[in-house]
Specification:
Blueprint: H1 2-16, H2 27-49, E1 52-61, E2 67-78, E3 82-84, H3 90-96, H4 99-118, E4 128-132, H5 143-154, E5 161-166, H6 167-172, H7 174-186, E6 190-196, H8 203-206, E7 213-216, H9 218-226, H10 234-243, E8 247-250, H11 256-264, E9 269-270, H12 284-290
Parallel strand pairs: 2-4, 4-5, 5-6, 6-7, 7-8, 8-9
Antiparallel strand pairs: 1-2, 1-9, 2-3
Bound molecules: ligand C2E and calcium ion (3 copies).
The site of one calcium ion (CA) has 5 residues, from strand 6.
Protein name: Response regulator receiver modulated diguanylate cyclase/phosphodiesterase
Organism: Tolypothrix tenuis PCC 7101
Amino acid sequence: EYLLRDADTAMYRAKALGRARYHVFDPIMYQEAIQLLELENDLRRAVARQEFIVYYQPIVSLYTGKIAGFEALVRWKHPLRGLIPPSDFIPVAEETGLISDINTWVLQSACQQLHLWENHPEITQPITMSVNLSARMFSQPNLIAQIDEILYETKVNPENLELEITESVIMENIHAVKTILQQLQERRIKLVMDDFGTGYSSLSYLHSFPLSALKIDKSFVKRMQENQEDMGLVPAMIGIADSMGMRTIAEGVETREQLDQLRSLNCEFAQGFLFSQPIEQQSVIHLLTKAPQW
Ligand code: C2E
Ligand code: CA
Ligand code: CA
Ligand code: CA
């Protein structure tokens, strides 16, 4: 009976998550609701046991052809189901608030890793670390204190840390987010707008935020190739970034043609399967020392 009552709540929330197909009782949806409930309980346990792992995907400088940094991307190391991609659990983590604990753990782990790389004898070039910040993090009153603690504990150089924020995060709460971003900027942390072009940011607001780069969403990089004639919106986005004194990172680069096009457009950085999939920490040194120059 207890489980049934929980399942009702879960079903209500499954609807809220947009999974509802019918409004009347539907066995398929009930099944989905139970699954969602199980996922939630599973995720709670995973947070308590820290069943997560951070993968790192290189970001390449198109000016030097060398790796300039890495983006930290979380995966769930499920004891039975194996490695689960973020798309399968981040939405539920967001909805339940568990994302804050997961994201803090990712930030902490990525900073620990960055500090090891900063002091690694075989790594001679400067390396940056990009971490995704979820919208939920911005409603935590102690976000700045938490970040200060992580910086202090891990001893990373904050100039090597980049935080990725989506347009919707900024636009949802312009004033509060602006204050937080300014505090992060005072700590010399770099701020990057993620998935640029997919949200609703107003250009007149954008320039007043302390952003150092715009990350062009992979959907635009993809269309650039399909639509050879006018190259789509990518040149315009690079132009916008330039005019605001921001740099550009193109995401989802999979082909040599895309790389060549981006280079001819003076895009500064690129990331994608052409260079490398996200990899485990222990493969990074090999990649850094053996990678070709693109
Ligand atoms: P994102 O921040 O836009 O990250 C880029 C995603 O594109 C990653 O998916 C990456 O593996 C994938 N990708 C990279 N290169 C290519 C390519 O050439 N082609 C294609 N098709 N895809 C490529 P991933 O790792 O599955 O992460 C998905 C999303 O989950 C991320 O999108 C981000 O929004 C979220 N996420 C991942 N880790 C975290 C985290 O620690 N915290 C938060 N809040 N969100 C995270
Ligand atoms: Ca990102
Ligand atoms: Ca992105
Ligand atoms: Ca994306």
